[in-house]
Amino acid sequence: MSKIRVWAVWMLAILSIFVLSACAPVAVPATNPAGDAESSSAAGTVEIRLASYGLGDAWNANLEKTIDGFREANPNIQVTVEFRPIDAYWDKLQTEFAAGTAPDVTINQMDWVIPGAARGMFVDLMPFIEADQVDLDAYFYDMEPEWGWQGGLYGGLLYAGGQALYVNKDLLAAAGLEMPSADWTWDDLLEYATALTNEETGQWGLYISPVNPPYWGASFIHGAGGTVLSEDKTSCTLTSPEAQAGLQFISDLIFVHEVMPSPVTLAGQEDPFLTGKVAMLFGGTWQEAQIREAGFDWDFAHMPAHPQTGARSVQMGSNAWSVLSTSEHQDEAWQLVKFLMGEGGQSGMMTNGVPGLTAVVESEAYLALHQPQDISVVTSDFANYGHDYYPTPDTGEWWNAVGQEISAIWSGEATVAEATERACVAVDEIFSRRPAEWNQ
């Protein structure tokens, strides 16, 4: 567990917690006690609580060590770290918020932040950012699409994560292939996958997970010029020809070209990339530590471009720190968040994810952590082609509905047209129940 990234747990959690973001609104306290609280300069030492997932001894110790840097620089602010299980984390936080017993700062997820912000749980950090002149342009990762809501910003970046294309170099060498070039296309991907597929040995060219299919399929949807939602996030757009073309490419990999296994084919088997049964994996950055222990030579490849348009897309996500609106010490809580999203926090936690600060992600220290592989292949794709997760107050509900329908494409139980039509019917029905202010 010590090597699991926060983002790994986020991806697992998203499958079970998504529906929670559609729960009934949490009651917002009648008054905001933050305005009545005395500042640290007037009242001496201030005690604040930070809650986070507990991700094993190594990760927990690293966070404590990172926060020690804040403690040393801010002796008047005492920080207590509360490590909690991921299971029911969001439920517990909402319950504490309603009772007025929530921590001052919490780790946050993309599927929680907008539902929470829409219900008044989190503090808008933009006034603090502007007052302290925090340079958001210093981040290669734009926080606003995922952590912004109606002009506010409700999270300070912990670190980023997203899709990464892993390539088994041993299998490439056996097939007489070099690593893909930076300008390769979907057509090249298919050629590689065909050359790397061996029916006799049970080897497949590539693998795109059927778990959470909207996430994995989104890069191809966007690459083909499609979208999942309209720009204002008020309607489903999966039935557009472009979106369907992206999903059709995936379907054809399985059922026409037969270079990618279906979920049924892999049922009950171990991870096919780790066992050498798949040559190329459209995976996540959080899988790197496990792949490093697999015992074969590998590296990262750039995401391929659409053969006609040259468009690329990488589905991304991140974790951040948020200040609870019930905190009586919001100024001090912000100082902690500012440290954690700044160079001290980003450098301190860079062994666990992709830092958002350009200076840190391009540093020799960070690059050395991933050698002999070239992590800059991934981070440059993030910076140039990253796409947000379409966060909305009801992300959990509609994303779960899309996943249920789109998964039928992977299994062959529905055509792309059938699955996307059903998905959009479900999504638009969910959107029809929104409060009017969510569409502003």
Structure summarized in a few sentences:
This protein has helices at 6-17, 40-43, 57-73, 89-99, 110-118, 126-131, 144-147, 169-174, 186-196, 213-223, 241-255, 288-292, 330-341, 343-348, 358-361, 364-369, 376-385, 395-411, 416-432, and strands at residues 46-53, 77-84, 105-109, 148-149, 152-153, 156-168, 204-208, 278-284, 298-301, 314-323, 386-387. With 440 residues, the protein is α/β, with parallel strands linked by helices. The chain has two domains: 30-160 and 317-371, D-Maltodextrin-Binding Protein, domain 2 (3-Layer(aba) Sandwich); 162-316 and 392-439, Periplasmic binding protein-like II (D-Maltodextrin-Binding Protein, domain 2), CATH 3.40.190.10.
Structure explained in plain terms:
Strands 1, 2, 3, 6, 7, 8, 9, 10 and 11 form a nine-stranded mixed β-sheet that branches. A two-stranded antiparallel ribbon has the order 4-5. The protein is globular and about 70 Å long. The protein is 42% helix and 15% strand. The two termini are 42 Å apart. The longest helix is centred in the N-terminal third of the chain and has 17 residues, at 57-73. Helix 18 (395-411) runs antiparallel to helix 19. The model is unreliable at 1-42 (pLDDT under 50). The chain has 19 helices and eleven strands. The chain folds into two domains: 30-160 and 317-371, Periplasmic binding protein-like II (D-Maltodextrin-Binding Protein, domain 2, 3-Layer(aba) Sandwich); 162-316 and 392-439, D-Maltodextrin-Binding Protein, domain 2. With 440 residues, it is of the alpha/beta class.
